[in-house]
Amino acid sequence: MQRFSNSVMKNMNRHVLRDGPRVLTADRPCDVFINHRGIDTKKTFSGLLFQYLSHLDIKCFLDRKSMKPGDHLFDNINRAIHGCKVGVAVLSPRYCLSTYCLHELALMLETKKKVIPIFYDVVPSQLHIMCRGSSMAYSSRDLERYSWALEEVRNIVGLIFDPSRHDWSELLSNASSAVIKSLMDVEEEGWPRGISNVISEKPN
């Protein structure tokens, strides 16, 4: 895992927060979209990362935590991805069984977002499309799209975490540092990113 020193972390925090605490309003696009399989990581790593970054006044999108009753799930997710600066893909053992996870990953890559993969209890070579009965059958277009997205993310340098061997606090620190560094890079490149003509369909 890539590690950042305390001094580098402090400098990154100061850079991202140089204008003081931000007011987190519903109208402001999120800074970070956290793509994850809820059953695997929502109550563990993904939830902790959301809370940690939120305390730094970095606006994150984490489905249920970022929406209220009555909000349209798909529309809000798509809007958040199009508006975000950085995507975090938490790739876990049951990730590839979720159509929504695969759609979100594909959309982040199609809109040219900077994506940070976190391989949580999996290695890149284990990521492939898994169909579970007829309800999980994909159209040829979706199959091609999701397979492409997984191939792309397998080739991005990320963090690898084995919950039985590695330290949780170290993962949270490394992931947060990587997110802050990526936000700095995106801002220096001249955000917004991902302006595209991609037309996304609702996942089956």
From TrEMBL:
InterPro entries: TIR_dom, Toll_tir_struct_dom_sf. SUPFAM superfamilies: Toll/Interleukin receptor TIR domain. This is TIR domain-containing protein. It comes from the Eukaryota. Residues 28-157 form the TIR domain. Pfam families: TIR (PF01582). PROSITE patterns: TIR (PS50104). One of its GO terms (biological process) is signal transduction. Gene3D superfamilies: Toll/interleukin-1 receptor homology (TIR) domain. Transmembrane segments: none annotated. The lineage of its organism: Eukaryota, Viridiplantae, Streptophyta, Embryophyta, Tracheophyta.
